[in-house]
Structures
1.
Amino acid sequence: MHVESSLVFVLAAVAVIVVVHRVAKVTGLPEAALLPLIGIGYSFLPGPNVGLDPEIILTFVLPPLLYSAALDSSLIAIRRNLRTVVSLSVVLVLLTALAIGFGFAWFVAGATLAAGIAVGAAVAPPDPVAALAVGRKVGLPPRLLTLIQGEGLLNDATALTILSVAIAAATGDGFSAPAALGLFLLDTAAGVAVGVAIALVVRLVSRKLGDDPMAANAVSLATPFCAYLLAEQVHGSGVLAVVVAGLIVGHHTPRTSSGASRLQTSAVWRLVDFLLEGLVFLLIGQQLPAVVRGLAQYETSTIVIAVAISVGVVLLLRPLWLVLTQLLPRSLHTRLGGEGPADERRLGGREVVALSWSGTRGVISLAAIFTLPLVTDSGEPFPDRDLLLFCTFVVVLVTLVGQGVTFAPLVRALGLRANESDQARLRNEARVASVEAALAALDDLQAEEHDDIQDHVIETVRVQLTTRVTRYQGRLDMLRDNVSPEIPVSAHYEAALHVRRVTLDAQREELLRWRDAGRLPDEGLRVLERELDHEERLLPDRKARR
């Protein structure tokens, strides 16, 4: 593809992503389901088609997406839910790969166990992008969002390790259970070590940079690639290194970076996610010609059986495993525990159903299966490679479109929704506590020796903080008066937010009139606009009520 053609293709892809994004916001349909369908439609049109290069996906696309997700994750919440996260991201991935592998060996004519485990490993790890997007939109409880996110962060390393072992067995290197376990442990240990090391370096560099948002953004964008490449160089799990680095950096960012750096870095990563995820989902649909090209050599019955095994295991094993882990004795189960806080209790029936239907597969599955070699060590074609590609594509399409479109209606039908009133109260209680800590610090300053100017400044700041804590306390009073779960935030609070937005818009319009009349230069306008933008950012989103 020529440079001009490549540029036209990229611009067209961005245009499609933007249009689909707007359509998704209006219709409520998930972008992750719409974009692959558009990609499939494009694949039938005349003109250039973009093939999926697994090296590009695994090296340039996967690390930033995983790192961004890890930055937004809660290390504390994942640690609190570690048993359930491990059961889904390690044990369930392994069981899925083995179940599909034995299914292929027993029921698919001519298929080998190693080839079956290879496709099983590729389709085993869910890609949580679609489920998280829908879950946040419909207000899924934070605990379930944490489990979906934690599972998606850790399962790729498990799947790719299993896939490498299966490929080694299928190409002639043979299979050894002890060697496979040793490889998995070595990859995991090296990946974790590299991730921790990179995170420590990033923390040190962030402290040195201080209030320099541009440099902080550059470091942030480079971090996932450094973690991935270094881990791969030492034969560790690059995926796990990226995730570990992101979790640690995200946990310590409030202490190591300035407010301006955090605001700008957050905006940059949102844009990166938006474009990369959109391009990835478009790319999935465009792989249809490649995956059906070699199916002519197979009997229709063979294709149907192989697809049925792949899709059936993916859809059925997940709910069975979730139910089983809730029924095992405490000493054996992987549930969250007995009585206690919300994050420590076992999963309820509705939560199991929602979590079962959140296992959408994505580009990682396709990138993994495209890494299968064309030939074995003996020079023979890799067994059933075209069939494995097709099975993976069908699993991805069924879960992305089928589960992606139906996940939101399912969550609404189950009545699973975060208690927004409780969350709003908690946030405002934290706001009050933080301002009270600031007032206590002012008392300490007041007790120290200082001049009249400093005394005047202290009193001025005290008045500002007192006004702020009064405002927060007023919000708390309104929220406490409205305890009905059907009305999570009081009408008075909503009205106050509306009035605040109206006043901010009026201030912007007045600044623009000053600029247009020549009374305020553009540079001054940008400074004042930035102040209003930061103030507006403190207000809750119209859909994410506080």
2.
Amino acid sequence: MNTKWLIKDAPDALQVENLKNEMNVSEVVAYMLVQRGITEFDDAKSFFRATLKELHDPFLMKDMERAVERVNIALEENQKILIYGDYDVDGTTAISIVYGYLSQFTSSVAYYIPDRYEEGYGVSEKGIRNAHENDFSLIITLDCGIKANEKVDLANSLGIDMIICDHHTPGKELPDCIVLDPKREDCNYPYKELSGAGVGFKLMQALAQTNDWDEGALFENLDLLAISIAADIVPVTGENRLLAQYGLKQLNEDTRPGIDILLNLAKKEKPLTLTDIVFTIAPRINAAGRIDDAKKAVVLMTSNDETELREIAKTIHEFNDERRTLDKEITEHALAIVEEDPDFDKKCTTVVFDESWHKGVIGIVASRLIENYYRPTIVLTQSEDGKTWTGSARSIKGVNVYDVLEKCSTYLEKFGGHYFAAGMTLKNEQLDDFVKRFDDEVRKVIGSESLIPEQIIEKELPFDSLFNMGESVFEVPRLMRVLNQFEPHGPNNMKPLFLAKNVYAHDAKLLKEVHLKMKVYQPNFQKHIEAIYFKAPEALEIVQNGPFDMVFTLEVNQFKGRTTPQLMVKDVRPHRG
């Protein structure tokens, strides 16, 4: 797939020089800090060494006082509290945090996760009626509920109060209950991009401060919060970055038993990054809800019974293997449908559907299709009643898929989500009109340039500036060790991309016929540096035919107990001089 190379604007040279001298760091590090708006020593210190004291006051969130008051009434009167969460990673980690913490202070708390296939996403009528039948007085929703107006009305009619903790974009009218959502238009909370688990965490933080509970016990759940931030693809900036920093530290240094067993089954070694969570932990937790029962994921994250955990972890691991098989089969089927569409090249979107596809993996398939075609994508499958289609949308930079769906809402029974991901349900007879309208609305906000993925490059970085005098290419250089402190990386804080020009390859070869492995050097730096370019067999000819330009990230390769620097190549082009 062709990509567009965009080099960020250079920051102010004087600010870079001043910060470099004040911090005693390299020009590259100072350059990147100023590029991120960090120009003062104290700001840089906070970026690298922030403390949990810098977390925002939870009471800055609209309705937080009301929420705390209502939970405390339930605790004082021993009312039954139901924690209601979604079945994905964000939802199950949120339940694990809130249920796990609250259960230290009351035995009258339970949790509920809707069945993906019987009830679908979000608050269900079955869930509300189940709460009523079991005498629950208060429902706290996590990662769902912001558009569940009718379900909240039902709960109100049954005498059940609700507190909604959500991070999705609200509809035009808020549900008639206590609503915690930083995306509320009337909410002045300083950080708008918390995960669903993050909103639940802030409620627990507010309760801890009000009731003088042990906040340290709450912070022991930051590993789960880091998992939610990684899995839900929320921006890794501001408060999310701080929470993820401490969460990753805990995940690596004091791994909870269930996650540790899961990592062993996956043969994944620590230390883990947010990327490792996305590709190793998140799919396995998700597999529980996609293939069977998401409650298993909550038990995995909250139990200390080793026998129980080994059994559940093994089951979840097997679910993930089944999920991968379904993912592969449906992706191949979807790709074939696209290839057979004679009008595909005229469209700005990819929309595919089949009544037999497994509902649990269509979101993953949508992401796979974007990897191939890079355009807003929807994958739909038939609902169990045969009367509606249910689907998952994934999007690209420049297209807010939630906004697009809102403009298509005439054809939808329900929808919800955020910028890059959403879900929807529509009646069978609306399918053709919806598909056309979706493409029309995307076309209004996108140009042909937007359908070309971008490589956003920090700066040109010649190989000789990677290593200080005397540093070996077989040892991780100081620059890389410092740049590692820019982690954790994720949306809006991606791993830095660099550009090297006039590069030559030595010993270039394909591994398993698809992955390009080579050693690279430049005329003014003859030492050979290890480099790898995954899934790029077509690049072999380019690197073998003379000098080329290369976009790359700096990585650490750990193999047989040895740690060495490695360049992870993202794109190559013939050098034009």
3.
Amino acid sequence: MKPQVVLGLLGLVTSATTAIYIPGLSPNTFKTGDKVPLFVNKIFSEKSPLPYAYADLPFVCDPPKDAKKTLLNLGELRFGTDVKCKALCRKSVSADDAALASSFISNDYRVEWIVDNLPGATKYAAADDQARSRKRYKTGFPLGNVKYGKTNINNHVTIQINYQVKENSPNERYIVGFEVSPYSIDGEDECPEGAKDVGYQVVSDKPVDISYTYSVKWVEDKEISWDKRWSLYLVRTDPQVHWYSIVNSVVIILFLTGMVVIIMMRTLNKDIALYNEEEMKDDGGGDDSAGWKLIHGDVFRTPKYSGLLCPIVGSGVQVLVMTGTTMTFALMGVLNPFYRGGLVSFALFLFVFSGAFGGYYSARLYKVFRGQSWTKNAILTATLVPGLLMGIVFMLNLFVWSQNSSSAIPFGTFLALVLMWFGISLPLSLLGAFFGQRKAVIEHPGRTNQIPRQIPEPIWYLRPRVAVAAGGVMPFAVIFIELFFILKSIWKDQYYYMFGFLAVVFSLLLITCVLTTIVLVYFQLCEEDYNWWWRSFFISSFSAVYIFLYSMVYYSQQLSIDHFVPALSYFTNSLMLCIVYGLLTGTAGFISTFWFIRRIYSAVKID
């Protein structure tokens, strides 16, 4: 395959409104008679998050001996050469292997083959807004079916390759579609093209001989251009649903912005003016909103467990940089279905190299708290959260390994991740921390009292647990609708492509986290409660708890997982996603609140 480079740039609005378009790549061209490799990938199911490698299945044919020795190469097709009912192999399947095949078929597993980076798909008709039928693809084809109480394996496939002739070069052609029609036929029957009633190749828990056959058709398709061939695979959703989500988020932001404006323009300006012009009375003048001024000597007091807060916030900065950069490249069209696993690999790559930013900010915050060992803090920043996630992945991998799933991380890959962690991320964190600790300390406006001020009993809705739980509702409400499509793409093997909408929702999410945290922390300070450091992190990050609860609802309502290991895989991966999300939103709330508090206390005169 020729190396492919994506340089297309989509604007945010264009990406959001015409999201079904994926930028064109440099196409592979073929001539009549050229060899076209047919690759195999996996079998997968919406009923289980555990895929399996097709090449490891004991009841399917082995690659032909004359196939090019390439990883996952199932064989080669001759471009333009039709094949009708050709025998592939005859496989003797043991009772255990037949039972395994029956289990996979009963759980609706589908097979994914690949030609020219296009997954094989079954076609179906979808009605558009004008009620006109049009072709759509569903990725993969069924491994088998269950009819009349019997499990049947699909042992014949009709492969249809759709191609387009290159303009001004009739000898060169592009592949624009890969359709697979599977059949289950009795080994003695003829191939089923055009037949409505065929025999079935039954598999159960008994030994069986299975004859595999295939046919190939090459069809010129003038309707789909090469750069839009992926559009047939993308499940089009009504853009109005996404716009509704955005409008809903904007309404929430306008409400929060209004509250912040009232605080800044009325309450703060009034309080600051009175505080600067008059001598502050011991009782606070009876103005409840003036309570934030009374704690100026305690508001910057070093919090408990500050040595833990710095690494967590540093890791959050690392996640913020990774997410923002990944989103940017997704909008540019770099991360599209053409690059299999590109999103996860790219995000992991960026997370490793974003360690410098995490180490830098962690060191700056550590210096604010008068820490004594910046190297210890940098090492903790680089190991705390990644170590937690790596430990979870390793424990989950033990269970996935026991199921022989292809989603299990091989030991060599796991070792490579550890080497990247300690060989790249850790040194970069130390480098970022080195420059961070060399910067001048962030000075606070005013001195901190030696004796902590007593904190009065707060109003019930400003108690820490209630405020944190309430603060997480707003960010969750912003992403609630888009979250459904994200979970659907993750757990139902659908391609997520509407990165324009996702970028808008992500921006609105960050704004909501910032405004919500500032408002609730300000109300807390007005109640003379100066313990805001940790709370500013937890207020917006608590929406991760609601996301995890929503994933439980999604599991019960949308999925049909009924085995322990697949369920464990689902909830463990959901937990890790929520941890990363909580770091991102919590850090956004913390940094903005830190800036806000420094601004308001630097505006008053403190003797």
4.
Amino acid sequence: MDRGFNTAISNAFLTDAGILQLDLLQLLPMATCIYNGSGRIIFYNEAAARLWGRNPELIKANDIYDDAAPCYTADGIYLSHDTAMLAALIKEGAPCNDWQVVLERPDQSKIFLKGNLIPLKNKLGVTIAVLHCFQEVTGTGAALQEIDEHIVRYKKLNEELKRSEERYHKMIEEVEDYAILLLDRSGMIQNWNKGAEKIKGYQESEIIGKHFSIFYQQEDRARQLPDRLITEATLTGKAVQEGWRVRKNGTRFWGSIVITALHDAENNVIGFSKVTRDLTEKKLAEDKIRQYANELEFQNKELEQFAYAAAHDMKEPLRKIQFYNNYIFDVAGPQLPEKAQEYLNRSISAASRMRGLIDDLLTYSQASSFSQEMVETDLNAIIDEVISSHHDTIEKNDVIIEVDRLPVMRVIPFQFAQLFDNLLGNALKYRSVERQPHITISVEKMTTLPEGINAASSGACYYRFSLTDNGIGFQSDYTDKLFELFQRLHSQPGITGSGIGLAICKKIVLNHHGVIKAYGNPGQGARFDIYIPCE
């Protein structure tokens, strides 16, 4: 069919009154049909019916015919008449020449068709219909067999896809723990599953077509939270948020929502999926735990303040006891009977121990406070000062002390000085009399913590400070008890202590978000490892 023939047909079909000359088409030996603007058949001739293998039925209510027969591309992909029509109309009314398709007849036989699609226009140039002229291409048996295999494969894949879609939609509809919604670009609700009905309380008929902001509190709508979430999802692909939402009956629930933008093939946003989970029970439990934690923290602070005040107030009467005991000992001590002198010495010793216990309690109370500010501190200066304060004991017992170069860190200087002082004091106190005392203080930068302790985050950096001695050591069973209040390493004669020092060390390390661990063996010494975050 040449182009002149196509033009002649199109001109003959449109009169000045715009009436199609259908009688001429019935006389044509070539198969011919006419589609309206929606791609539906409004006319066909007998030649077309013979190729189709059937006469399409007239749907009188709309003056159109049903589809003639299934059509497929050479790859076996199904086409509808709408597809063919749109192909012609998309080209702004330009003819579609050499249009080819495989037609499946009612008896399952297939033929190869070839033809043209010609837009029919009125005087204003508006396409009012499309003329389709086509004929069978002979000698294509081998090609049809190959196409038939494509069609069978396509139908199988199409059926599997249909079943998969049905299962997917069924799954979405049946999910009850999540509200799953489809929104259009403006946020209007397009679908509704059982989970949405359960969580939000609306029936599907009550909510379809409403804006999803209906679930938000008045104050959230006033600050345009729903619109901001849609904007965020449009710009970034996703919006995640938690907050109070409103059910149909007016009650509130704590919802965790994820809004995800949906895109077409050109990456244009065509709508949104919205998934909501009801986390009300979790939210209430977390709030209750947070309330208990705040109350416990308040009570702990009160107890710490009481301990500090009590210890501080006890210092004055104790000072008087010590003063009077020392006065009696200095003035009348030599004249007292031997038993009285013994009792007086015991009283002076007990008052001295009491003074040490009060000082340790005051130190512990101070170590429990987070009010001190962390500052950049040269730890070398602190350790030098601590070693200097123990100079007499170190010199008297010929103690060897080796110290690595320590870093500059943000710490509470007073507390870190107390930490090193307590650990060094313990190492000196529990030294061995069988060998020369040897103490090392080392530091190492690392990213791992002892087994059983999780790092704050992946790749976190820590300084590990290790104080090691070759003293009398301790039983490994006591490792976890050492840092409790009033727990002492040893009870040998001549070794005194309040049992608070290591508890103070642990409190200081916790204040600096760190970890302290102890290791020891009887007669072989002890090691204390302190892990402090680098930043």
